[in-house]
């Protein structure tokens, strides 16, 4: 059995997804100018394939890329929306690069699918690294500074999406990858939603929308079915970095040792002490939690304050480990953060 057939033979693959992979590998083989090499994964709306540029490219932009193909015409809306979001991020009104920590789109289009209907596809850059592997490679006492660096990268990606008027709504470790140079990159923006009106003000929240995202990393408001705002993305960011900080533990999140969802909701609420939900975390993580609880639905988050707390946690951990004061002054570090991220 070929390697790609073994991948698609997994128990979690639906028959229609397996059929689409078989059609892409054996019949389609090339989408536009992208040569299909093997399947990488699947979702509710389609499959994800590894591709490489064919020989028609004079100067190919990359050596490897990721192709996402809709399973049928009814599933194309999600990919077309993802195309629109990435277009807005890659061509923002202020002309500043907003994709340093958000995945870049390389190509997109519509083609005749397996069932002769028109389906959407998108090609994005291939993110080979995994943040969990990058963290686990370090000794446990050295992980907090690495987590803080990656948290800053993820915060910048969230900030850039918010700056362009989008909420991600599905922040979790599975939706992150690593570029060369240990840059963390956010991807899978198919669940994103615009949160601003034409006048630039936040849209009024809907009374009930149901959960959007993944319950383990979703905010309490999202789990209760309320409409999400910028602070809900930041809660997803916070739960993600908390899990990364505990990635060597059997319970990366405090609520994973409990079977009932009600316990998870309690631990995400104001009633749960931070000593329980943030056990073994730097004190700055408690400050981040308190700040996020203070933000209202229409408030603009202070991303720079969050970055400052992460920088403080990183440097304090390093000083404690090395046993000497940091060489850089607080002012120099603040200036660096502002230039690098905001």
Automatic annotation (TrEMBL):
Pfam families: Pkinase. Residues 34-337 form the Protein kinase domain. Gene3D superfamilies: Transferase(Phosphotransferase) domain 1. SUPFAM superfamilies: Protein kinase-like (PK-like). GO terms for molecular function: ATP binding; protein kinase activity. It comes from the Eukaryota. InterPro entries: CK1_Ser-Thr_kinase (IPR050235), Kinase-like_dom_sf (IPR011009), Prot_kinase_dom (IPR000719), Protein_kinase_ATP_BS (IPR017441). Keywords: ATP-binding, Nucleotide-binding. ATP binds at residue 68. PANTHER family: CASEIN KINASE-RELATED. This is Protein kinase domain-containing protein. It comes from Mesorhabditis spiculigera.
